[in-house]
Each structure stands twice: as C-alpha cells, then as structure tokens.
Description:
By secondary structure, the chain is α/β, with parallel strands linked by helices. It has one domain (about 5-30, about 60-395): Glycoside hydrolase, family 3, N-terminal domain (TIM Barrel), CATH 3.20.20. Helix content is about 40%, strand content about 10%. The strands form two sheets. It has an eight-stranded parallel sheet. Strand 4 and strand 5 (about 145) form a beta hairpin. The termini are far apart. The relative contact order is 0.13.
Amino acid sequence: MTGPMLSRRRFLVRGVVAVLGAFLSACAAVAQSLAPSRSTPSPSPARSPTPVPSPSAAGPSLRENIARMLLVGFRGLTVDEAAPTIGDLADHGLGGVLFFSRDQLTGADRNVGSPDQLRTLVADLKSAATLPLIVAIDQEGGVVARLGPRHGFPETPSAAAMGLGAPSDTAAIARSMAMTLADAGITLNLAPVVDLAINPDNPIIAGLERSFSADPSVVIAHAEAFIEGHHELGVLCAIKHFPGQGSASADTHLGIVDVTDAWTEHELEPFEALVASGAADAILTAHVFNAALDRDHPATLSRATVTGILRDRLGDDGPIISDDLQMGAIRDAVGYDEAIALAIEAGIDLLLVANQIVYEPDIVGDTIAIIERHVRDGRISEARIRESVDRIEGLRR
C-alpha cells in the first residue's frame, strides 16, 4: 500500500466513528418519526417474479417487449415537465426510469427537488405506466447519493467510511437509506459498488470513496449487509461494475479505459460470492476494455465477458444491466446503434440510457426502432428479446 493510500486511510479512520455514530443516531430518529405515518414495505425475496398482465391475450408485441428492456433517464421535476417520458410510458410501454438529482449539462435540479415533490413525481410516473415500473436511482452513499441534504434528505456516509466499520453498522445505514427510497416509491438501487479499491488514483472509484475496501472479503461482507438492509424495506439492489473497474486509471464516462495490464482475477471475487449466495438482485456491467478477456469489445459489449464469465463461469441467472450506453467509452468504441446490438448479443437484459451526458428526448422511440430493425434483419432473435424480458420481470414491484 502506498504512502498516499495510508494517509487517506488514517483520515478515514479518524472520521468514521464520528460519521457512523451521527448517521446511526439520525437513522433512529428518522425511523421513529416515519413509523406512525407510513407502513413499512414488506420484504421481497431476491428475484421473485411479479406477475405482469399482458396487454392482450396474445401477449406483448415485439415493440412492447423491447420497451420493457429500457431503463431511461429523463428531465423534469413534475409530470408536466416530464411530458415526453409520460408519453413513452403510455405509448411505448417504457419499462423503467432512472432518477438524477442534478442535470449534468445545466447544473440545475433534474428530477429531485424535495421529498414531497419526488414522492409525487414517482407516483405520477407509475400511474402513467402500462406495467409495474422499475424506478431506479444511484444511492450509494457519500458523493454518489442522488438524494441528499441539498433536497431535504438525510446525509449518508461513503462506502469507504462504511467499510472501516462493522457490517452490522452498514446494514443499519442501508436500512435507513432504503427507508428513504421506499418512502419515495423507488424500487431499485443501483448499488452497492463491489469494485475493489485497488488503485488509489482511480478517479471514479477510490477517488470518490465508492468502494468498501481493496480487500475482497471486506467488500463481500459489507455488500451483503448493504443488500440485506435494502431487502428488509423491499428495495432491490444491483451490484456494480462487473467485471470490476477498481484497478482502472481513468473514467469511462469520458472515453475508453484499458485495464488490460491492471485488472486481476481477484476483482471477480465479490461478484462470484454474491452470485453464489443469491444476494444480488441484478448486476450492472462496466465499460472497461480488457484485451485479456476480449480483444475487440469493452465488457458491456463483450459476449466473452458477460455470457462467458458472468453467466457460464460464475453461474449468474438473474438480470444483467448495462452501464450507461451513452458514455464516452461506448460512443468512442462503436457508436450507439452498434452498441445496442452488441450489448444484447453479449447478454445484457436491461439497457441503461441515462440521458445525462447527452440528452435525447426521443431516445426511447429511437432505441425501439434500432432494436426492431436488428430483429427484422435477423441479427437479434425475438426469442433473445423474450429471454431478457423474462429475467427483467423479477425487478418489477
């Protein structure tokens, strides 16, 4: 471990007791204040499918099934401001939405203004949907927490701070986080991060304190506790970023990141353990490029990685979610149209389009048309689409 890493660890050690103590006290206060006014959602077992009524006796059409494979970011604090997405829900049968607190292009509030506003917006979106809607957010804790004090939500410690404490403390923190999400109507947390903090200079993982530890056993213990805390409140979790990007030295949001010489098999250990235990409800992929795993494609677009390692070697049979397909690492590699086809061929089930770095209000209709064309041309089969839809149904609440 290098000098800078030791210094950072000493800093975290000094602060973690105070941070966790204050946070857990706040958790208890929040739980006590909420208990009389709302009922606690009943726990949901991981990956238990929820029956979804078909729009007709013949079942969903191809276009409807494709729409169910999309998890899309949008703009708007109210149902009127989010009118294009309301249209996508009602007209296309869009399967999932992703919430952000801040618009990366303008810096303005994007989907989150206050607890009451968020609760109302989520309810309006669910009312407009033609099937139980996947409502997702990144609520990892620390810097990556879309719901924070700026908008009237509790402050949360980072994963790095949690990793220095006991897993039981992480479970308590996660229960409070899940209570916040459940109260808003959010059903899926794109967390926890199970990347190993191998590279202290990694700007997107260790640099933002998003990893519990560089030690796989610590990451596994805290990830299990984090997920358990969410499950107690009926909120599902997607672990990320497969097959691990803790060793990376750059940010895949901005462009292609090659980890060929840095990545090691140890980075698979948290995924392997959480797949074996059945803890994770879904797994979200990374866009890192690793020639040792696939000489041509980044992980999200790599059949050798997604199907070969995650499905066949680790035995995962749950839904797999792509990271944002508008990221620089994907745009620079193949472009959006080809990325959609490659992701499905690789084994991705739920296609995440954040609409954050680049905002495209017509992205849902455009993406459905792209996939429909690939099916018509014979590149992707309808059976492959139905396979993903069947897996995704377990994420609907």
